[in-house]
Amino acid sequence: MSGDLFEGLDPRPARQPIADGAVLLRGFARSEESELLAALRAILLAAPFRHMITPGGHTMSVAMSNCGAVGWATDRKGYRYDAIDPNSGRPWPAMPASFVGLARRAAAEAGFADFRPDACLINRYVPGAKMSLHQDKDEADFAAPIVSVSFGLPAVFMFGGMQRSEKPQRFALEHGDVVAWGGPSRLAYHGVAPLKDGEHPVLGRQRINLTFRRAR
Ligand code: MD3
Ligand code: FE
């Protein structure tokens, strides 16, 4: 018997438009997760996670690293993209072909042709870590989308409007979920609620998020 009768009732559709220009691709990274996570481990040996300081002097609860031609960093002097990892003084690790391929396929699936990411910010959340509502506006060209890939513990993602005061929609991002954010969603306020404790079968007590960007 075919599953057609029940298809409309699937609580987790594969391709879910969540806002104007934003498409959630549930489980899109699952089939290649072992290759992606192996590449991620190699990146983190060269550029380990670190807690960066905001210009206001606060230590971020999310630990970060990067790969790609440039990486995002913050310190007391401000936010910026730079080719050099400030902790090592060396260039950020190159973006693996497996990362570029996934980001390009996800962007294309969401309607953004020829995405060429030059930066991948890697965020690690442990239980309690969060990211307050913000806009991503340190990139040169807002015509390019941002593609995000989630691994490990599920997070409650908050998606607001063009003003911080707009009440955000909340939804879960789970292991292997990919979202492409472009068009009118590109400059929307967004954040992540404090990570709930748990144990993920692959990643343990953490969530790792990759965001692919065209920074320059
Ligand atoms: C919507 N990261 O690194 S990913 C960030 O889960 C960031 O670590 C979150 O926000 C995380 O800047 C959210 C989803 C995401 C990323 C970028 C966006 C959503 C976005 C840019 C514009 C609109
Ligand atoms: Fe962001």
TrEMBL record:
<feature type="binding site">
    <location>
        <position position="190"/>
    </location>
    <ligand>
        <name>Fe cation</name>
    </ligand>
</feature>
<dbReference type="GO" id="GO:0035513">
    <property type="term" value="P:oxidative RNA demethylation"/>
</dbReference>
<feature type="binding site">
    <location>
        <begin position="207"/>
        <end position="213"/>
    </location>
    <ligand>
        <name>2-oxoglutarate</name>
    </ligand>
</feature>
<feature type="binding site">
    <location>
        <begin position="123"/>
        <end position="125"/>
    </location>
    <ligand>
        <name>2-oxoglutarate</name>
    </ligand>
</feature>
<feature type="binding site">
    <location>
        <position position="164"/>
    </location>
    <ligand>
        <name>substrate</name>
    </ligand>
</feature>
<keyword id="KW-0489">Methyltransferase</keyword>
<dbReference type="InterPro" id="IPR037151">
    <property type="entry name" value="AlkB-like_sf"/>
</dbReference>
<dbReference type="GO" id="GO:0008168">
    <property type="term" value="F:methyltransferase activity"/>
</dbReference>
<dbReference type="InterPro" id="IPR005123">
    <property type="entry name" value="Oxoglu/Fe-dep_dioxygenase_dom"/>
</dbReference>
<dbReference type="InterPro" id="IPR027450">
    <property type="entry name" value="AlkB-like"/>
</dbReference>
<dbReference type="GO" id="GO:0008198">
    <property type="term" value="F:ferrous iron binding"/>
</dbReference>
<feature type="binding site">
    <location>
        <begin position="79"/>
        <end position="81"/>
    </location>
    <ligand>
        <name>substrate</name>
    </ligand>
</feature>
<dbReference type="Pfam" id="PF13532">
    <property type="entry name" value="2OG-FeII_Oxy_2"/>
</dbReference>
<comment type="function">
    <text>Dioxygenase that repairs alkylated DNA and RNA containing 3-methylcytosine or 1-methyladenine by oxidative demethylation. Has highest activity towards 3-methylcytosine. Has lower activity towards alkylated DNA containing ethenoadenine, and no detectable activity towards 1-methylguanine or 3-methylthymine. Accepts double-stranded and single-stranded substrates. Requires molecular oxygen, alpha-ketoglutarate and iron. Provides extensive resistance to alkylating agents such as MMS and DMS (SN2 agents), but not to MMNG and MNU (SN1 agents).</text>
</comment>
<keyword id="KW-0479">Metal-binding</keyword>
<keyword id="KW-0560">Oxidoreductase</keyword>
<feature type="binding site">
    <location>
        <position position="138"/>
    </location>
    <ligand>
        <name>substrate</name>
    </ligand>
</feature>
<dbReference type="GO" id="GO:0006281">
    <property type="term" value="P:DNA repair"/>
</dbReference>
<protein>
    <recommendedName>
        <fullName>Alpha-ketoglutarate-dependent dioxygenase AlkB</fullName>
        <ecNumber>1.14.11.33</ecNumber>
    </recommendedName>
</protein>
<dbReference type="GO" id="GO:0035516">
    <property type="term" value="F:broad specificity oxidative DNA demethylase activity"/>
</dbReference>
<comment type="similarity">
    <text>Belongs to the alkB family.</text>
</comment>
<keyword id="KW-0808">Transferase</keyword>
<keyword id="KW-0408">Iron</keyword>
<keyword id="KW-0234">DNA repair</keyword>
<feature type="binding site">
    <location>
        <position position="134"/>
    </location>
    <ligand>
        <name>Fe cation</name>
    </ligand>
</feature>
<keyword id="KW-0223">Dioxygenase</keyword>
<feature type="domain" description="Fe2OG dioxygenase">
    <location>
        <begin position="116"/>
        <end position="216"/>
    </location>
</feature>
<feature type="binding site">
    <location>
        <position position="72"/>
    </location>
    <ligand>
        <name>substrate</name>
    </ligand>
</feature>
<dbReference type="GO" id="GO:0005737">
    <property type="term" value="C:cytoplasm"/>
</dbReference>
<dbReference type="InterPro" id="IPR004574">
    <property type="entry name" value="Alkb"/>
</dbReference>
<dbReference type="GO" id="GO:0032259">
    <property type="term" value="P:methylation"/>
</dbReference>
<dbReference type="GO" id="GO:0035515">
    <property type="term" value="F:oxidative RNA demethylase activity"/>
</dbReference>
<feature type="binding site">
    <location>
        <position position="136"/>
    </location>
    <ligand>
        <name>Fe cation</name>
    </ligand>
</feature>
<keyword id="KW-0227">DNA damage</keyword>
